[in-house]
């Protein structure tokens, strides 16, 4: 059984109630008959379910996962990360002044936390990219990110070909949340450029930040627009795997809703507010509270559920596809550099593997081509 589904039976923290700031429209369409049910109990992230996804061996060691966040400053990236993992990865906030912004170059900051939940350890690394898109010209803000991702692959490749293969620290970027501005009416040229340059390197999950700035109709519109732009540009964002036919109906329904929610429109907050006698994380407005964990208010829970349920798939796609792309590329280049150097058995083996990968890629491309007809 690939995924744990127990959480889906629980009623969790599915809160009902109207969305104060957004209830002005769209009520004519009661839409979905199913509510999205938070598979977790409040106060838990939910990764304790991970042991069911992978070998028990990894339980002892803990899980390693690296999440990168990219997007312009002020879109709520740090707040969202803190809300997602119920931890304070970013205690201090530095606001750049105008002169800093002119020279701003993108920085790459990795912070690692070990979180333990119900006896399961997660070694989570969050790679932040402050300064992305902040300079007036936004020039050269993509390259440092590509470089970072490649460096991690390079390190893994070296470790993998080394002697001590049993304890390789996996710092490869397994997932990248790309933050899109709620006020941009869709993707900006830089957003498209970033995704086009990175989609074969990393799993991109597009996220609309500060979704409380938009009404429900606007959210629908911007999501549609983004998906159209992604299609037009031929960008391949991360595709959640399809359910097995024998999964139960609840799980299939949840998965369908997760897929439909892309790009996730999220709200983050680390502030606890009292709503209907319960403490919830939310943002207080004169007209009411936008609740972060209320699936009717935003896609925060869906994003977190996606991340947790598909954590293993994100790792596998990173390893089997993106890392293999990197490795194949590297081998191809090395092959060119030393013509006729086929004596090494290792190299010959790798070439066979490379051919296999290329076949697989060709097959996938053919499949994609036939789907988009
Ligand atoms: N309205 C709204 N404000 C937010 C949200 N998330 C964060 N903020 C606020 O936006 C500002 C920037 O947030 P921060 O997380 O530091 O953004 P970052 O620069 O992308 O890391 C802070 O004042 C946050 O309180 C959100 O979902 N909605
Ligand atoms: Mg930040």
UniProtKB/TrEMBL annotation:
Residues covered by region (Disordered): 1-26
Compartments in which it is found: Cell projection, Cilium membrane; Cleavage furrow; Cytoplasm, Cytoskeleton, Spindle; Midbody
Major localization listed first in the record, in broad terms: membrane
Extent of Polar residues compositional bias: 7-21
Keyword set, alphabetical order: Cell cycle, Cell division, Cell membrane, Cell projection, Cytoplasm, Cytoskeleton, GTP-binding, Membrane, Mitosis, Nucleotide-binding
Matching Gene3D superfamilies: P-loop containing nucleotide triphosphate hydrolases
Ranges of residues in domain Septin-type G: 61-333
Cell division in keyword set: yes
Transmembrane segments: none
Key word Cytoplasm present: yes
Record-stated family: Belongs to the TRAFAC class TrmE-Era-EngA-EngB-Septin-like GTPase superfamily. Septin GTPase family.
Protein name in UniProt: Septin
Source species of the chain: Priapulus caudatus (Priapulid worm)
Underlying gene: LOC106814643
């Amino acid at each position: 059984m690939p995924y744990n589904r127990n959480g889906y039976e629980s009623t969790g923290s599915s809160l009902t109630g109207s969305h104060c700031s957004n209830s002005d429209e769209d009520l004519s369409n009661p839409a979905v008959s199913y509510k999205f049910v938070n598979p977790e109990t409040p106060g838990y992230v939910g990764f304790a379910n991970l042991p069911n996804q992978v070998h028990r061996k990894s339980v002892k060691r803990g899980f390693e996962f690296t999440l990168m966040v990219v997007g312009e400053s002020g879109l709520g990236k740090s707040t969202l990360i803190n809300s997602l993992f119920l931890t304070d990865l970013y205690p201090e906030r530095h606001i750049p002044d105008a002169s800093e912004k002119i020279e701003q170059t993108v920085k790459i900051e990795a912070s690692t936390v070990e979180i333990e939940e119900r006896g399961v350890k997660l070694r989570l690394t969050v790679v932040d990219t402050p300064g992305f898109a902040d300079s007036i010209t936004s020039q050269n803000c993509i390259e440092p990110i590509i470089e970072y991702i490649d460096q991690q692959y390079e390190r893994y490749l070296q470790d993998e070909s080394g002697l001590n293969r049993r304890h390789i620290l996996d710092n490869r970027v397994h997932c990248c949340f790309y933050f899109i501005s709620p006020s941009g009416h869709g993707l900006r040229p830089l957003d498209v450029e970033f995704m086009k340059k990175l989609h074969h390197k990393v799993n991109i999950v597009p996220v609309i930040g500060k979704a409380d700035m938009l009404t429900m109709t606007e959210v629908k519109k911007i999501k549609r627009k983004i998906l159209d732009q992604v299609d037009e540009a031929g960008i391949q964002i991360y595709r959640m795997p399809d359910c097995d036919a024998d999964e139960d109906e609840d799980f299939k329904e949840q998965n369908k809703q997760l897929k439909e929610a892309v790009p996730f429109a999220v709200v983050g907050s680390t502030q606890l507010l009292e709503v209907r006698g319960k403490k919830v994380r939310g943002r207080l407005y004169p007209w009411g509270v936008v609740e972060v964990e209320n699936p009717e208010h935003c896609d925060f829970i869906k994003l977190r559920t996606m991340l947790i349920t598909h954590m293993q798939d994100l790792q596998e796609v990173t390893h089997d596809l993106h890392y293999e792309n990197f490795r194949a590329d590297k081998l191809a280049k090395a092959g060119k550099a030393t013509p006729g150097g086929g004596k090494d058995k290792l190299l010959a083996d790798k070439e066979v593997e490379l051919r296999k990968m290329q076949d697989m890629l060709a097959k996938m491309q053919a499949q994609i081509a036939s789907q988009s007809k």
